[in-house]
Design goal:
The protein is an alpha+beta fold. The strands form 5 sheets. A 7-stranded antiparallel beta sheet has the order 1-20-19-15-14-9-8.
Length: about 525
């Protein structure tokens, strides 16, 4: 990896972290600390990743939880493995049923949006194949944080307050009754530095650890989840939970200027990042100023085309035909590239929606590396909490379409379109490392921007994450971070983009990166838009 390490002494900028024995990075410091302890105790990168992921269900529940889905890319020292840990729609839920009930799209909150949570099984499957420490040891730091309490950090508090005071404000009825007792025990969101604890959450984590996640799908926890659904009008059944499995998959990739960029195949949107990079390879981005209107314009146009294709074609490949090979062909990229001109395109709009997610990565002294992502989908998910468990159920079903002609139409037992995507970079068959940018529709866009900053401009991980970002939503609308500068904004507007400057809390994602240098040393960076950091030893 050819990085401009000589520029690191530049005063006033965030610096990357260097370490020889192992490294972790995620959006919350307490979770990162748990991952580092796992490495120092002799655990693998997978042990560290699971420890962080479990902790994030406690210390950042406004983005993910035990009731989430997860995906992972694991470099075992010789090759890359992919795990699809997303859940399927309940057997009793159909698009026709929701249309007959008057819905034109799947509601964001409530049982209609709940699919089978895949996260606990994903943890157990990853640990069973690549873990070294006992599973109970790996999950115990998370259980301890839940039992003893943890103090809220600033970005987490902002998301927590948004979920409690805004998203939950209009939700009524028995399905939502447990939410405020768990997440707002004193009547509102905890403040920055205030402790929040959940003994139910701690007990559930220890039950998952003790049973290797079996309790969640076929035991006591499964009975509680299915029972709550049956009592409150839900669709999730004991049979739906018992039938869940993770799926080991072959990652998909494209070569971008000598580097292989890897993603999880559909039902995720990672293919959009690869298609956008294929389109961009035909332009000499390295010859353009990194933060210029000319460079941003080309990247935005490539992403527009790629995401439009993803929203048209991506679905569960077990239930629909997804033209992955055709979408990633060089011929198709050339045809899409030819559509890009000096003016902003108005592509056929997709269906971009918001999301809340956690991303983490880890690397150990033996060269194992993990790219891992875990998400509710939006905020606290469905806002349905299973009484006595602390389990907040995701709302990933919102990723389905209700259009019977769409390949991603809601069907029983089908996995929805997923926004969450872990990334990985290799060069000449050797691992460079894991990367990711969480945040719904921003994720494929963030992957493109981090790869361009790394490959075209040779920026180290921290600098690649620090760069000001753009975000395309639909049509010609582009959102810019405040520090991009007025000149760049005017340059994009002159090219026909409908430019807005971002308000606080805008969806620019939160990423982490760990690269392995030729010396074997790791260098990592963590998102300045979140509370976390990279740690090594």
């Amino acid at each position: 990896m050819d990085l401009r390490l000589a520029e690191l002494a530049e005063p006033g900028r965030h610096q990357p972290v260097f370490a020889a024995n192992g490294m972790v990075a995620t959006s919350q410091p307490l979770a990162a600390a748990a991952g580092l302890r796992a490495l120092q105790d002799g655990g693998s990168a997978v042990d560290a990743a699971i420890a962080m992921a479990a902790c994030l269900t406690v210390v950042e529940p406004c983005s993910n939880g035990i009731g989430s889905d997860a995906f992972a890319l694991v470099w075992d020292g010789a090759r890359l493995h992919g795990l699809n840990g997303s859940g399927r729609a309940p057997s009793g839920l159909t698009a026709a049923r929701l249309r007959d009930a008057g819905h034109t799209q799947i509601p964001l909150h409530g049982w209609e949006a709940v699919t089978v949570p895949g996260t606990p099984r994903a943890w157990a499957d990853l640990h069973g194949r690549f873990g070294r420490l006992p599973f109970e040891r790996v999950l115990e730091p998370a259980a301890t944080y839940a039992e003893e309490g943890f103090p809220l950090s600033p970005v987490v508090r902002w998301g927590w307050a948004n979920g409690v005071e805004r998203a939950h404000a209009g939700l009524r009825g028995e399905p939502f009754a447990e939410f405020l007792r768990v997440f707002a025990p004193d009547g509102g969101a905890p403040g920055v530095g205030e402790r929040w604890r959940s003994q139910d959450h701690a007990t559930t984590l220890r039950e998952i650890a003790r049973t290797g996640a079996a309790s969640f799908y076929t035991g006591d926890l499964a009975d509680r989840i299915a029972g709550h659904a049956a009592r409150t009008g839900g669709f999730l059944s004991a049979a739906d939970l018992a039938g869940h499995t993770s799926t080991w998959v072959d990652p998909i990739s494209t070569n971008y200027r000598g580097y292989d960029v890897w993603e999880i195949p559909p039902n995720g949107q990672g293919i959009a990042a690869l298609l956008a990079l294929n389109i961009l390879e035909g332009f000499e981005l390295e010859a353009l100023e990194r933060t210029s209107a000319a460079s941003f314009h080309l990247q935005i146009e490539a992403v527009k085309l790629a995401l439009t294709d993803a929203h048209r074609h991506v679905a569960d490949p077990e239930r629909a035909e997804v033209p992955t090979e055709q979408l990633l062909s060089r011929e198709y990229a050339a045809a899409r590239r030819a559509l890009i001109g000096p003016e902003a395109l108005l592509p056929e709009p997709g269906d971009p929606r918001g999301s809340d997610t956690v991303y983490l990565c880890a690397a150990d002294r033996d060269g194992m590396m993990v790219s891992f992502i875990q998400s509710n989908f939006h905020g606290f998910g469905s806002h349905i909490v299973v009484p006595g468990t602390g389990i907040a159920l995701q709302n990933r079903g919102v990723g389905f379409s209700l259009d019977p002609a769409h390949p991603n139409v809601l069907e029983p037992g089908k996995r929805p379109f997923h926004t969450i995507i872990p990334g990985f970079l290799t060069e000449g068959g050797a691992a460079v490392g894991p990367f990711g940018v969480m945040g719904g529709h921003m994720q494929a866009q963030g992957h493109v921007q981090v790869v361009v900053n790394t490959v075209d401009h040779a920026l180290d991980p921290q600098a690649a994450l620090d760069q000001p970002r753009w975000y395309w939503s639909e049509g010609r609308a582009v959102l810019l971070e405040r520090d991009v500068g007025a000149e760049l904004a005017r340059g994009l507007a002159a090219r026909g983009h409908e430019v807005s400057i971002a308000p606080h809390g805008a969806p620019f994602g939160r990423g982490q990166v760990i690269w392995r240098l030729e010396s074997g040393v790791y260098v990592g960076g963590s998102e300045p838009r979140a509370d976390g950091f990279a740690m090594g030893w």
